């Protein structure tokens, strides 16, 4: 019975943690893009994003991570023999990367708060794809364990991930182009009136 409780809350923790990670870097993108706004909008937006980032990191993302890790430890205490399996070692390696990503997000958040972040919104969009890729690998390892298929199914999944990343990047590029076009049209109006 303990195993089922640990597993249930482990899954809940994962959902909360990843929701926080996905949205946190999205806020970083908006925070960086706020630098392109005129005053006083720039200051207002940056202050608001800073508040949202801190709350998301402290109230949702970090508790989700802690719950995930605590319940994983609980799961391992109920099945210690699983520690000898290769798939778990690989999975824990990806979890370690994810923990590093989580803490790197805090570093970026601190840099954004003092205007020292050197990441562009385009670079942050690419960074935002990292947890998606790690999630796919971690879930596949948890489901298939040592019998992870390497047939056509894997290549279809890889293709879907690449298509998803490409679609997100193309959408971001289109939004940037639309905004640039809109700004160009706005700047043309005063010249035409003069």
Automatic annotation (TrEMBL):
* Cell compartments where the protein resides: Cell membrane
Q: Which domain of life is it from?
A: Bacteria
Q: What class of enzyme is it?
A: oxidoreductase
Membrane topology, as annotated: Multi-pass membrane protein
The alphabetized UniProt keywords are: Cell membrane, Heme, Iron, Membrane, Metal-binding, Oxidoreductase, Transmembrane, Transmembrane helix
List its EC numbers: 1.3.99.-
List, in alphabetical order, the Gene Ontology terms for molecular function in this entry.
Answer: metal ion binding; protoporphyrinogen oxidase activity
Q: Which residues cross the membrane?
A: 6-25, 56-76, 88-105, 126-146, 152-172
Cofactor info, note text: Binds 1 heme b (iron(II)-protoporphyrin IX) group per subunit.
**Which Gene Ontology BP annotations are present?**
protoporphyrinogen IX biosynthetic process
Q: Which cofactor does it need?
A: heme b
> Catalyzes what?
protoporphyrinogen IX + 3 A = protoporphyrin IX + 3 AH2
The text of the family note is: Belongs to the HemJ family.
The record ties this protein, via HAMAP family, to:
HemJ
Q: How does it assemble?
A: Homodimer.
What's the protein name? Protoporphyrinogen IX oxidase
Q: Which organism is it from?
A: Hassallia byssoidea VB512170
């Amino acid at each position: 019975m303990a195993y089922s409780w640990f597993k249930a809350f482990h899954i809940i923790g994962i959902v909360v943690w990843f929701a926080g990670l996905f949205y946190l870097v999205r806020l970083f993108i908006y925070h960086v893009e706020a630098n392109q706004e005129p005053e006083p909008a720039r200051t207002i937006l940056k202050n608001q994003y800073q508040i949202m980032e801190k709350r998301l990191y402290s109230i949702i993302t970090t508790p989700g991570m802690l719950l995930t890790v605590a319940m994983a430890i609980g799961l391992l205490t109920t099945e210690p023999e699983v520690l000898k399996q290769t798939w778990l070692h690989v999975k824990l390696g990806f979890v370690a990367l994810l923990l590093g990503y989580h803490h790197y997000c805090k570093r970026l958040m601190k840099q954004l708060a003092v205007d020292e972040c050197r990441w562009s919104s385009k670079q942050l969009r690419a960074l935002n794809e990292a947890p998606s890729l790690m999630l796919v690998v971690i879930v596949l390892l948890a489901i298939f364990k040592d019998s992870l298929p390497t047939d056509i199914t894997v290549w279809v999944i890889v293709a879907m991930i690449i298509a998803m990343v490409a679609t997100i990047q193309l959408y971001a590029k289109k939004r940037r182009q639309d905004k640039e076009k809109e700004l160009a049209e706005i700047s043309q109006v005063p010249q035409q009136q003069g």
